[in-house]
Amino acid sequence: MTEREKLALLEDMLELDEGDLTAETALDDVDEYDSMAKLSLIVLMEDEFGVKLTGDMIKGFETVGDILNLMEK
Amino acid sequence: MDFLRMKDRHILITGGAAGIGRQTAITLSELGAKVAVLDLQEEGLKETLSMLQDEGHSIHTVDLSDIDALEGLIVSIVKETGAFDGFVHCAGIVKNLPIINYKYERLHKIMLVNFYSYFEIIRVLSKKGRFNEGMSIVGISSVAATQGAAAQAAYAASKAAMNGAMRCLAKELGEKGIRLNTVLPAATETAMYTEYMALKAQMKDTEMKIAPNPRQYLGMNAPADVANAIIFLLSPASRKITGVQLPVDGGYASC
Description:
Chain A is an all-alpha fold and 73 residues long.
């Protein structure tokens, strides 16, 4: 999966337009990244990439790139 | 006086490797019942077995989402240890699924374990020779079946399905002398619940509180609070109770 495809998954999950996110985007700047979106991220990462996110991991994410780094596929 | 009269009764329990299912198995064994415990988690099953009183119990590692495998397993248990006097369906997937994550496969997996396996086991058990007179079936539903909660739609739907099926099957199987009821627990102190609350607190960046909704004004359930209700419904002490949804919710439903 290319980086753009991974970004597209996150954009779809957050209901953003294509191209809204880059690896450098700070998560604090994304209004849609709220507690429900974090729940969605847990499901997405587990089901699509087999990665079980913990609360500590989620708290440690600063940029979109931190999430992309865990998307191994 | 032995009010519950569970001695030597043979009870099938799904989801017995932890939490409410494990506690139900332990208490039943203390009352003299023989339990057959099913779960996907082999290590947890072995631990449960080590906690049971007396002999004659059995454990079986099984994936309840493999619906076609269930009849063979149950028939083999009946052949080996006899027909059943009761069935408790505790197994369940609790998963937060915001609507944006919905895929048919995700919903289907939850329904397979939480509802279809319950329905299939009832079908299999209610055939002649597989149950003893007065068999009682208790499904562990949830207050989520009657109250809304964000990201819980799939779980709540599976639990509501149990309640709906239970009421119909209580009528249908009543002529065979089989009773069916469901128990609707609210927040219960299990490892699964603690994990959920910890995650929720970390996502909201607040301190974790193992505390139920304030509407649950009698406080958090212990697994034994739910197990006690299950065992009452399994026992002949409840022989005129069927088709009922019994909340074990510390007052939640009264608010």
